[in-house]
């Protein structure tokens, strides 16, 4: 896009006073960068630390592509031309004795004394004496944007913010992503016209500023340029409203942005940000252009770069390609590595994980399933096809989703066995032992790709999620109902405080161990638990003392992983102040590395916790059989 104006085309006296310089408004690209400012309004003008009062009012509207040229001669003061922009109105037209009633909605604005009708896009609305920027809802509806907050709209399909209204200090603005604005103008086949007003008041100016200031109004621009500016230099103004004397300069700037041409044969096609003929992915046949298999309509006579291959030939990516979609609203990554984004697109037919390092799919499925705009992202993670030996080695590692699913399966089996355990003492459970869900935030994030470059914080974060997932998923009410079947106060510790879910599971598991090993009467259970957990064992028979110590140690060892999860969550520093010494202690007790954790440590921990749950299941099962 061209500059609105070139500096060399304007008189130099406009820049002689730095505090009154409009260079930042005039000498910029019409449409560049990531964001374009559709509207702006200064909420309450106040002098800055340089003694300059700065007021901005920018509004934008849509008009026919040739409309700017027709309006050019009528574009004077911004405030006069579009004073009523966006205001619905009803009125009577008089033609001699004939009267005609007319109504203009907010989305139609007729510029006085011209045949041109505009459609306001972003305009200033005054409500209860407060000015704010209003956004034409057509912009939101066209892109099917979701409103994340009152001032932020995003494209959930692509996972990017598109439209935002923000207030920084004293200036409220509305901005839209440039590529979305281009797309919108192209589809509407309308030009965007910006009406930009700004005034600068230099309070109590120094004598050199007064001398450098030239009191002369300037107008420049042309229809062909698609821009027009009027700079009003009003000179030194007398004291007004207690401001003292000030130098004033006002800018009335108009410029247009024409819509990109539209392909009448395929008007809804989006141009990719790369050349599909040059874009290749590595395959066993060499680099191949997936565009060969895409439904995208290419130009005539183009030649794809690289080799050719079969539709089902495999392409490989580092699994970290999935990280972009794991946390994106509207996107879903399945356990086997398939990706879907609502009804917009999906890659699933031939997609699979290879261990925790690679993702594989057919190049044809990639071309048909992944939209062109996403291809550059996947290109960053594309890797050469692995040899058979490498593939087999990588595949030997259990995938993280499968490891999490194995844990969930054991927890659900434990629920069933705990129900059987409760039935043996005629306790009715109102809810299962474990009520967690793999679809919970913690459950989903446990399955996320574990980056190979992750530091210790990633492991600590996963342990925190795992602790939340397992321990916080335990139901204290169900545990208390069962443990109280053997003693009214067995759900309390020696200080008469109610036990939490983890400690309750330890106690009921201890009861299961005692039932299997000692086969006591129900009336003896409470006393045996108190002997194990609180009273000196030298008061009992030596043989019984050994059995009780063995039962206690077995229970502690069986549930050691839950104690680890709790302790590491407490001392790891994710939610509490970190204590590295305690972290190393609890990690070493479980046989894990004390620092420099990697994905293998995380998988090892998942296995340890799964085995712990499995052993607890076996213990309840043994107790039920003993009954």
Structure summarized in a few sentences:
This protein is an alpha+beta fold and 627 residues long. It is 34% helix and 24% strand.
Description:
The protein has 627 residues and is α+β, with helices and mostly antiparallel strands. The protein is 34% helix and 24% strand. The protein has 20 helices and 24 strands. The strands form 5 sheets. Strands 1, 2, 5, 6, 7, 8, 9, 10, 11, 12, 13, 14 and 15 form a 13-stranded antiparallel β-sheet that branches. It has a 4-stranded antiparallel β-sheet with strand order 22-23-18-24. It has a 3-stranded antiparallel β-sheet with strand order 19-20-21. Helix 14 (476-483) runs parallel beside helix 15 and helix 18 (560-571) runs antiparallel to helix 19 (580-589).
Number of helices: 20
Question: How many strands appear in the DSSP assignment?
Answer: 24
Percent of sequence in beta strands: 15-25%
**Secondary structure: helix percent:** 25-40%
What is the CA-CA span between the terminal residues? Answer: 83 Å
Structure class: alpha+beta
Overall pLDDT metric: 91
**Rg computed from alpha carbons, rounded to a whole number of angstroms:** 36 Å
What composes the largest sheet? 13 strands, antiparallel
Shape: elongated
Low-confidence blocks of residues: none
């Amino acid at each position: 896009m061209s500059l609105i104006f070139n500096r060399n085309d304007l008189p130099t006296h406009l820049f002689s006073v730095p505090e009154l310089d409009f260079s930042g408004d005039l000498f910029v690209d019409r449409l560049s960068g990531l964001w374009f400012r559709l509207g702006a309004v200064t909420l309450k003008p106040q002098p800055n630390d340089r003694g300059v009062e700065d007021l901005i009012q920018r509004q934008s509207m849509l008009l026919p592509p040739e409309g700017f040229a027709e309006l050019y001669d009528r574009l004077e003061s911004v405030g006069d031309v579009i004073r009523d922009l966006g205001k619905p109105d009803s009125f009577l037209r008089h033609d001699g004795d004939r009267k005609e009633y007319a109504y203009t909605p907010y989305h139609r604005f007729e510029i006085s004394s011209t045949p041109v009708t505009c459609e306001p896009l972003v305009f200033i609305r005054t409500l209860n004496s407060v000015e704010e920027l209003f956004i034409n809802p057509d912009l939101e509806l066209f892109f099917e944007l979701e409103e994340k907050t009152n001032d932020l709209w995003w494209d959930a399909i692509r996972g990017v913010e598109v439209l935002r209204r923000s207030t920084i200090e004293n200036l409220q603005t509305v901005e839209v992503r440039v590529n979305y604005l281009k797309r919108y103008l192209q589809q509407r086949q309308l030009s965007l016209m910006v009406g930009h007003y700004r005034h600068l008041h230099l309070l109590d100016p120094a004598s050199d500023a007064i001398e450098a200031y030239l009191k002369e109004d300037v107008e420049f621009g042309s229809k062909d340029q698609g821009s027009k500016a009027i700079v009003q230099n009003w000179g030194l103004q007398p004291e007004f409203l207690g401001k003292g004397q000030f130098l004033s300069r006002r800018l009335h700037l108009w410029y247009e942005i024409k819509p990109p041409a539209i392909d009448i044969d395929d008007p809804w096609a989006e141009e990719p940000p790369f050349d599909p003929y040059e874009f290749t992915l590595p395959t066993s046949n060499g680099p191949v252009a997936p565009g060969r298999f895409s439904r995208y309509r290419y130009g005539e006579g183009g030649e794809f770069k690289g080799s050719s291959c079969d539709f089902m030939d495999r392409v490989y990516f580092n699994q970290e390609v999935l990280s972009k979609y794991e946390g994106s609203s509207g996107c879903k990554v399945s356990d086997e590595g398939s990706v879907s984004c609502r009804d917009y697109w999906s890659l699933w037919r031939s997609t699979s994980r290879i261990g925790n390092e690679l993702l594989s799919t057919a190049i044809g499925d990639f071309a048909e399933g992944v939209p062109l705009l996403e291809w550059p992202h996947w290109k960053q993670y594309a890797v050469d096809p692995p040899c058979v030996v490498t593939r087999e080695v990588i595949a030997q590692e259990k995938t993280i989703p499968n490891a999490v699913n194995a844990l969930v399966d054991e927890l659900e089996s434990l629920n069933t066995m705990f129900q059987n355990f409760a039935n043996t003492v005629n306790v009715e459970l109102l809810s299962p032992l474990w009520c967690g869900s793999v679809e919970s935030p913690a459950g989903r994030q446990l399955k996320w790709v574990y980056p190979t470059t992750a530091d210790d914080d990633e492991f600590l974060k996963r342990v925190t999620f795992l602790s939340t997932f397992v321990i916080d998923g335990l139901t204290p009410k169900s545990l208390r109902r069962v443990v109280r079947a053997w003693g009214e106060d067995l759900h309390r510790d020696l200080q008469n405080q109610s036990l939490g879910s983890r400690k309750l599971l330890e106690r009921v598991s201890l009861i299961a161990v005692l039932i299997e090993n000692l086969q006591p009467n129900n009336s003896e259970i409470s006393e045996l638990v108190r002997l194990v957990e609180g009273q000196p064992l030298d008061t009992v028979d030596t043989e019984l003392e050994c059995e009780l110590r063995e039962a206690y140690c077995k229970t502690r060892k069986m549930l050691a992983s839950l104690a680890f999860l709790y302790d590491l969550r407490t001392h790891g520093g994710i939610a509490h102040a970190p204590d590295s010494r305690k972290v190393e202690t609890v990690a070493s007790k479980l046989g894990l590395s004390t620092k420099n954790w990697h994905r293998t440590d995380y998988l090892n921990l998942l296995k340890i916790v799964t085995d712990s749950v499995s052993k607890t299941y076996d213990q309840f099962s043994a107790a039920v059989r003993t009954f």
